[in-house]
């Protein structure tokens, strides 16, 4: 091995793990957390067909009456049937007559009927009326559940391709709850996926146009602020523990006509490049389109032709329902994210062994299981999981995942049993005295969090009873491991992780000044403040804003 290669190898081995890579599991609901550094959930992990590397979901919006959609979709359905006899298209419908005779025909052909709110408000939260937003969301679900022998699984937010109609509150306060009739959904497809040249895995010809400019970013509307995007992560991911997000590619057909005009061949060529990108990344290509003259049905057929002829059995066309069913069966081992009543089923998706691929842990009253993906053999390895992640009422227990080991393997903290490390084969409980088991009062939800504050790849402990939180560094010496308190109290006066009842007090960790260290933003009904991180010894000692 030559010297430059050796140095590159040593640099890669010595690089510290990403200490905050598991923070999304216990942080506030964030629909936009994935990026290039997030562990991948590639299609071979969940598709259930060894030869398939990528999936395609065709999803058409806004159906209120079926005949217009039958006319538009029929050439597309006929082309899809030539592949394997199925016609997998998902139709996002605000409202439709559940007794419409067209629906059972479509379902028999392989389509799925999904939700899009009853009234199609743009934006959903107009006027700040949360209760009204939930009513139109719920009415659509309950209506489509009246289709005989059918239940929808997916949702698309109205106008999510043209405005920032998606928000964290939608997921935490609407999607992740149930309707008055007890119905619920499991899949969303409202956060758009933008491919950029930052992804070095993708050829320049895919992400750049003929003039060496970004191919896809110009589709983000420039005449408005548009932030409903993630970049370079074409995989399913979980939002708020209960929702699968299947991000549609940017552009939708509305974005495409907004830039290039109606039914532009340029848009179709860029869609083909997006298909290429998804296959290279082994992800999901989901397209959001409409029968409104923005893209022709012949152009959708052209995309099907391109994908089928270029990639053959390496791709699979699916509906949202089929994606969901395969995620449950082949990825999660049969345990869905939500219980039959819509609650938290104690299923978490995370990279346990720091190999860059998502794994699965399940901790509920029926199953305690760890599933580790073997990317070389394309198979799952299973081991026991040591703790419950939900209680008997499907409420999440205050179990926290963290990076505490130099190899980046996951650790977990359970208030009842203390600290556990994953060692590559299973979970190892630390000996009594080294577990870091908290004192009385720290078992309240959200009272303990783990974040890498000093950038060394190892999380620090931040927690304790309200008003007396401590900041602790994880220490190792040989086989001995312990927590060393560096600052008490850790949090600035007037801030807290939880209130006296164990509820979220309004504290967030954000790198405000972009210096690589997490700062504090605190806000509740009475006050707000911003504190910059100084050191592990001084904590967040620099107050820069308060009111």
Say which CATH homologous superfamily of the domain at 45-324 is assigned: Glycoside hydrolase/deacetylase
Overall mean confidence score, pLDDT: 92
Largest sheet: number of strands, sense, barrel closure: 5 strands, parallel
Q: Estimate percent helicity.
A: 10-25%
User: What is the CATH topology descriptor of the domain at 45-324?
Assistant: TIM Barrel
What is the CATH C-level name of the domain at 45-324? Alpha Beta
The CATH architecture designation of the domain at 45-324 is: Alpha-Beta Barrel
What is the CA-atom radius of gyration, in angstroms?
A: 24 Å
**SS class:** alpha/beta
Number of helices: 10
Q: Shape from CA axes?
A: globular
State the end-to-end CA separation. 60 Å
Strand content: 15-25%
In total, how many beta strands?
Answer: 27
Q: Spans of 5+ residues with little confidence (pLDDT < 50)? A: 1-16, 437-446
Element layout with pairings:
Layout: H1 3-14, E1 54-60, H2 66-84, E2 90-93, H3 102-109, E3 112-115, H4 130-144, E4 154-155, H5 168-175, E5 187-188, E6 192-194, H6 204-207, E7 229-231, E8 237-239, E9 243-245, H7 253-260, H8 265-281, E10 284-289, H9 297-311, E11 315-317, H10 320-331, E12 347-350, E13 359-363, E14 368-374, E15 379-384, E16 400-403, E17 410-414, E18 418-422, E19 427-429, E20 448-451, E21 460-463, E22 470-477, E23 480-487, E24 507-510, E25 519-523, E26 528-532, E27 542-546
Parallel strand pairs: 1-2, 1-10, 1-11, 2-3, 4-5, 5-9, 6-7
Antiparallel strand pairs: 8-9, 12-13, 13-14, 14-15, 16-17, 17-18, 18-19, 20-21, 21-22, 22-23, 24-25, 25-26, 26-27
Helix pairs in contact: 2-9, 8-9
């Amino acid at each position: 091995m030559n010297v430059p290669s050796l140095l590159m190898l040593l640099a890669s081995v010595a690089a510290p793990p990403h200490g905050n890579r598991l923070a999304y599991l216990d942080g506030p609901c964030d629909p936009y957390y994935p990026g290039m550094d997030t562990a991948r959930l590639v299609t071979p992990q969940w598709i259930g067909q060894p030869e398939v590397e990528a999936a395609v979901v065709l999803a058409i919006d806004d159906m209120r009456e079926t005949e217009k959609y039958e006319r538009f979709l029929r050439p597309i359905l006929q082309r899809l049937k030539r592949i394997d006899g199925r016609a997998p298209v998902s139709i996002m419908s605000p409202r439709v007559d559940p007794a419409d005779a067209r629906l059972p025909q479509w379902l028999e052909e392989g389509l799925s009927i999904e939700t899009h709110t009853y009234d199609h408000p743009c934006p959903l939260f107009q006027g700040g009326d949360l209760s009204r937003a939930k009513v139109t969301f719920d009415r659509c679900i309950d209506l489509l559940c009246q289709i005989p022998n059918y239940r929808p699984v997916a949702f698309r937010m109205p106008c999510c391709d043209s405005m920032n109609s998606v928000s964290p509150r939608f997921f935490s306060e609407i999607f992740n709850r149930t309707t008055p009739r007890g119905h619920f959904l499991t899949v969303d497809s409202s956060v758009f996926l933008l491919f950029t040249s930052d992804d070095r895995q993708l050829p320049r010809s895919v992400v750049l146009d003929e003039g060496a400019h970004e191919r896809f970013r110009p589709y983000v509307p420039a005449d408005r602020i548009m932030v409903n995007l993630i970049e370079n992560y074409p995989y399913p991911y979980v939002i708020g523990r209960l929702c699968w997000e299947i991000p549609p590619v940017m552009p939708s057909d509305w974005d495409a006509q907004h830039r290039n005009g109606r039914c532009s061949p340029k848009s179709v060529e860029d869609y083909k490049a997006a298909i290429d990108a998804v296959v290279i990344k082994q992800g999901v290509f989901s397209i959001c389109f409409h029968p409104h003259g923005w893209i022709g049905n012949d152009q959708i057929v052209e995309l099907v032709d391109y994908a089928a002829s270029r990639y053959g059995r390496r791709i699979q066309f699916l509906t949202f329902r089929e994606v969901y069913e395969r995620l449950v069966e082949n990825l999660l081992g049969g345990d869905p994210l939500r219980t039959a009543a819509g609650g938290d089923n104690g299923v978490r998706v995370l990279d346990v062994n720091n190999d860059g691929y998502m794994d699965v842990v399940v901790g509920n009253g029926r199953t305690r299981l760890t599933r580790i993906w073997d990317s070389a053999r394309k198979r799952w390895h299973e081991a026991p999981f040591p703790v419950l992640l939900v209680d008997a009422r499907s409420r999440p227990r205050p179990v926290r995942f963290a990076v505490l080991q130099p190899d980046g393997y996951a650790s977990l903290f359970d208030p009842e049993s203390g600290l556990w490390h994953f060692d590559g084969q299973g979970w190892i409980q630390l000996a009594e005295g080294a577990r870091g088991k908290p004192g009385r009062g720290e078992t309240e939800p959200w009272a303990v969090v783990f974040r890498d504050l000093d950038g060394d790849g190892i999380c620090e402990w931040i927690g304790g009873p309200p008003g007396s939180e401590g900041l602790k560094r994880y220490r190792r010496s040989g086989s001995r491991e312990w927590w060393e308190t560096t600052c008490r109290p850790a949090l600035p006066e007037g801030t807290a992780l939880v209130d006296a009842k164990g509820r979220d007090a309004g504290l967030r960790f954000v790198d405000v000044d972009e210096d690589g260290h997490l700062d504090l933003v605190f806000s509740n009904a009475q006050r707000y403040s911003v504190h910059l991180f100084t050191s592990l010894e001084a904590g967040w000692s620099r107050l820069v804003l308060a009111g």
